[in-house]
Amino acid sequence: MTKLDLSYANKGLKIKSVAIHDGKFHADDVFAAMLIRAIYPGVEVVRSREDAVLDECDIVIDVGLKYNFEDLRFDHHQVGKAGHRENGIEYSGFGLIWRHWGMDICKGNQDLYDDIDRKLVQPVDANDNSQALYGEPNYKGVHNFNLDDIMSSAMNPTLSEAGQEDERFVEAMDLVEIIFARL
Prior knowledge:
- The chain is an alpha/beta fold and 183 residues long.
- It has 6 helices and 5 strands; from the N terminus they run E-H-E-H-E-E-E-H-H-H-H.
- Helix content is 43%, strand content 8%.
- It has a 5-stranded mixed β-sheet.
- The longest helix is centred in the middle third of the chain and has 19 residues, at 110-128.
């Protein structure tokens, strides 16, 4: 597969590194990192929670307890969170990146932006913020296997892969890049 190239959406910023929290990952941080990697080809993806490391990175997503576009900080875990849409769905790291780069990615096509936001971004955001989109399951013990389940259950390292978190994260970004490109 050819790498997704969204560099036309780079807003003229010189971005060399993006920080995402280390440890277990979810769909929101994987999609957000994938978008930044596609917008800024060659960007280094750094996985850490250490303030000194975060301060050295150009963009920080889903860690650091701060949301401020001017500082390129896109976390939603702080007190008061990072806002929500008119329908009440709160932003996750992915939604915040989409909020600021999505229209550029869609080359100004509002219908495409809205379609991707509705089908992909809002469900990922809602799931990451524990906002249920569906009611109780019809069958006891059976539930929908969604994108976050894929990230949490299938893409994070198994017990025998301890220490391979960064490698699995890159594999997860490659997978969601295919999904995003198809949309």
